[in-house]
Amino acid sequence: MRNINIGEVCCAVEGELSRCGYEENIISSITTDSRKIEEGCLFIPLTGDRFDGHDFIKQAFEKGAQCCLSQKPVETDKTVIYVKDTKKALLDMARYYRGLFDLKVCAVTGSVGKTTTKDMIASVLEQKYSTLKTYGNFNNEIGLPLTIFNIEDSHEAAVLEMGMNSFGEISRLTSVGKPDVAVITNVGVSHIENLGSREGILKAKCEIFEGLSENGTAVLNADNDMLSTLKGKERFNTIWFGIEDKSGFYADNIEEMGIEGVRCTIHAGNDVFDVFIGVPGRHMVLNALAAAAVGKAFGLNANEIKKGIENFKPTGMRMEVSTVPFGFTLINDSYNANPVSAKAAVDVLSKSGGIKTAVLGDMLELGDFAASLHYDVGKYTAQKGIDNIVCIGDISINMYDGARSVKTEGVYYFSTLDEFLQSGLDKILIKNSTVLIKASHSMAFEKIAVRLRGVK
Length: 456
Prior knowledge:
This protein has helices at 6-12, 57-62, 86-98, 114-125, 143-148, 169-177, 192-195, 198-205, 283-297, 302-310, 339-350, 370-383, 397-404, 417-423, 425-428, 446-453, and strands at 4-5, 16-17, 26-27, 29-31, 41-43, 67-70, 80-82, 104-109, 131-133, 157-161, 181-184, 217-221, 237-242, 249-256, 262-268, 271-277, 320-324, 328-332, 356-361, 388-392, 411-414, 434-438. It is an alpha/beta fold. α4 packs across α9. It is globular and about 75 Å long. The termini are far apart. The model has no long low-confidence stretch (mean pLDDT 94).
């Protein structure tokens, strides 16, 4: 982080400096986590349903914090900046800090695949620029500012993931990130519980354009039925990409190679090149097209884009393929799940060899659509010829019913993950088979991967 002084912080957050504060004192880092306090840092305490960071202000000063923000009175002789809302102040501070740098910024959002697309875009941009990217899925109103505070003078580009589950969130994030390129991977049904309809989701995703620079570029998935409704209404230079839609950047000669990956030919304007994507799934081709579009927008040539795509490695627990004891091939896609990504993962499993087992769990934030969407995923999985289908969780009883509407053998239901681990895993998962695990993150399906790696 570039050093800034307390006076700058005070102005950025529109705060009131305590009497004992010194504007010229230097801040060398910023954190919201009292466990990560270091000498010279600014501590921004946040409040939640189960915690209040203000309780750790005294501890923060004892650990060497230079200054703390607070929305509550603090008895201390140390430097405090008082604000009305520390969460808003965190965003305001990040907006100011972002403005200190002249670098190329790409923002990425979408219902499915935004983290993988973000990582692939970063892999491409790294071929030409020193690039910062969002760590993991630090994509909300706390995580994105923390990413921005990691910008150094050496950085030339940044790829920022922007997530949301209600209206207004991406609007606030994009006003902080100030992107030059904005990518929307797709509009599905994630968070439909809060946004009411896919039209509502589209509206929320399009908030990303509010922060786009005047000469910025939008990168949009032409194959997505909702995004394609924006054609002819573009307010910015737009690069469309697709597999089915070949009006913009597109791919053909697609050859799925099971769990090894996928080959294709990418047509990126005047450039045409073959690539091998070392992660399985046809949907990875769309991610590569988005990365190619961003690369072109930022001035990379075809060789640089190709190298970046082929060097791409996914974040953990996203289509992570490994061999575990007794010859199990594990496809660990357990970081998160929604109906679109679940079907895409099942597609990958269906193209693997040997006995195929899908262990699927609850997909959250689907509201009134949850039952029907889970039923549909179960039915789809059975139709793809998966040998064993395990459905886990309260909502997944509907997935079980959907699978049973197609086949009756090899379909299992467990109400909890613990029940499956205790009485189902060793009986159902057959050695030398390929196993897919997929569910929303809160289902903790990574425990299945741990058991498989140490299976007895």
